[in-house]
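To illustrate the input format used throughout this study, we show a single complete record. The first block contains the structure-token representation of the backbone; no residue identities are included at this stage. The design step must infer an amino acid for every position from geometry alone.
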């Protein structure tokens, strides 16, 4: 389950709506997992590590101590349904491994409107409201990330409800530093050859065949072996 560039252009609106509805029911409709547990963990030792400078930038939003023995980097798109589905899992990892795991978030703007969603998140970060706004933007993604055209006005309203000073944020959203973050993150996305979201790197190695249960299991394994 992921949002890819190819799939985005190939799927028609009906298919996307059905997929989003199914995803919402599975993930948020009573705790029923929509993905089956992966039988095999990713053998990260067999996957070549990439240039670490492409994974973590000094400005990247992160959770957990910098010196944590395990680093999980997520390339995510605020408009991506799969990223929304994985967000509670990432939060669960944070709670289970508060000192052992550092989580770094990188922006991957594949969808229409995603660049502005990033500007919402970055202005929220300037106001120390990143986390509540991120949670609200993803939780209420079906309201604004519409496949027939994003409703960014609704996204801004959602952010305001989550605590964002809207007037200040709208004056700050064109801050050159935010444009720089967007440009650098997408340059790294292209350099890494990322084609879908979410894409995770665990201790510098790209994970494949990610499932909800599998992600937690792989992180736990990395912690136990760190």
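Output of the design step:
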């Amino acid at each position: 389950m992921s949002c890819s560039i190819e799939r985005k252009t190939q799927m028609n609106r009906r298919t996307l709506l059905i997929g989003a509805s199914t995803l919402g029911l599975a993930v948020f409709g009573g705790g029923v997992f929509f993905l089956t547990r992966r039988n095999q963990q990713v053998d990260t030792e067999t996957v070549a590590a990439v240039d670490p400078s492409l994974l973590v930038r000094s400005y990247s939003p992160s959770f957990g101590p910098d010196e944590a023995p395990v680093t999980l980097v997520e390339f995510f798109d605020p408009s991506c349904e799969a990223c929304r589905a994985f967000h509670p899992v990432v939060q669960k990892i944070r709670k289970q491994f508060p000192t052992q795991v550092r989580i770094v978030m990188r922006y991957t703007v594949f969808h229409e409107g995603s660049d502005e969603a990033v500007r919402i998140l970055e202005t929220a970060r300037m106001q120390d409201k990143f986390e509540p706004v991120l949670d609200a933007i993803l939780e209420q993604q079906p309201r604004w990330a519409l496949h027939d055209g994003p409703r960014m006005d609704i996204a801004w309203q959602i952010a305001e409800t989550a605590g964002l000073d809207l007037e200040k944020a709208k004056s700050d959203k064109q801050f050159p530093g935010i444009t720089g973050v967007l440009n650098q993150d997408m340059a790294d996305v292209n350099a890494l050859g990322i084609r879908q979201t979410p894409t995770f790197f665990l201790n510098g190695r790209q994970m494949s065949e990610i499932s909800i249960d599998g992600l937690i299991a792989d992180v736990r394994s990395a912690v136990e072996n760190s």
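Structural context for interpreting the output: The beta strands are 3-4, 62-63, 70-76, 101-107, 196-197, 199-202, 205-206. The first strand starts at residue 3 and ends at 4.
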